[in-house]
Amino acid sequence: MAEQHYDVAIVGCGIMGSAIARRARRSGLRTIAWDRLIDRARAVGEGVDAAPELQSATGSAEVVVTMLADAAATLSVMDAHHGFDAMKSGSAWVQMATIGLKGIIKARLVASQRSDIVFLDAPVSGTKQPAEDGKLLILASCDRQDVPEPVQRLFRAIGQRTMWLGPVGQGTRMKLVLNSWLASIMEALVETLAVADVLDVPHERFAECIEGGPLGTPWAIAKAKKIDSGKTHETEFPLKWADKDVHLALEAVKETAHDRELPALEAIQKLWDRAVESNLGDRDVSAVYEALKTPAASAR
């Protein structure tokens, strides 16, 4: 398999990595996928080949996409386990997961060891369905202006819009800002629904009041409907990764501006930590509503 040529290699076959792989293949890009658990790579399906070894994936593609859980996993795979070393000359490493400022600095350092490979910091905004539909927002940043055409093809396949934000690191910075906004909306929504519960106001009436107006974001309304239909187990964006992203945002701010206070985001971090500890981490981020209904979680 290492001798075959692919347009794209997806490293990490979780919810987003699998969806991106399927979308890339449906768009005509020859796609291979690798995961530490080979069965997950095989389960991607839809014509996406499963790589038995990491190097057979990264060494056979024009574009290598990392979509792993965090910075530690990304650096382990691409550095310690030589995924980066196996990449062929002229290819591109596109880092699409949310790994924080420290993580992207370390990844950039690894990539700097070879001048024949282009490195892009390009986290995406969107969940599973937008990824499947090619409607992600790509927050791209790169130290070069001449981004290779294979990368452009991938972005056209999976993204509804690509924002070019400047040198490496700017994509990650914007992703932390967006995910802070997401966390704030999510927590505001579930606490508002909790107020509605106490005051005996039906959730659907609340949704009717805000839908179509300046107070009603489509994403929040969709999450409210997900909660009411009892489908928070159908995960689009896992709560544990949303919680991780809040930690990364707070970490970045504290290291940049030591005296900056973010009391609301810090409170969300504590609440979501408890929700993850109460075994809600693998459920959709909207499952924080369930945490509010659990006395043990709120009484600590």
Question: What is this structure, in a nutshell?
Answer:
This protein has 300 residues and is of the alpha/beta class. Helix content is 51%, strand content 14%.
What does this structure look like?
Helices cover 51% and strands 14% of the residues. With 300 residues, the chain is α/β, with parallel strands linked by helices. Strands 1, 2, 3, 4, 5, 6, 7, 8 and 9 form a nine-stranded mixed beta sheet that branches. Helix 1 links the parallel strand 1 and strand 2. Helix 9 packs antiparallel against helix 10 and helix 11 runs antiparallel to helix 12. The termini are far apart. The model has no long low-confidence stretch (mean pLDDT 95).
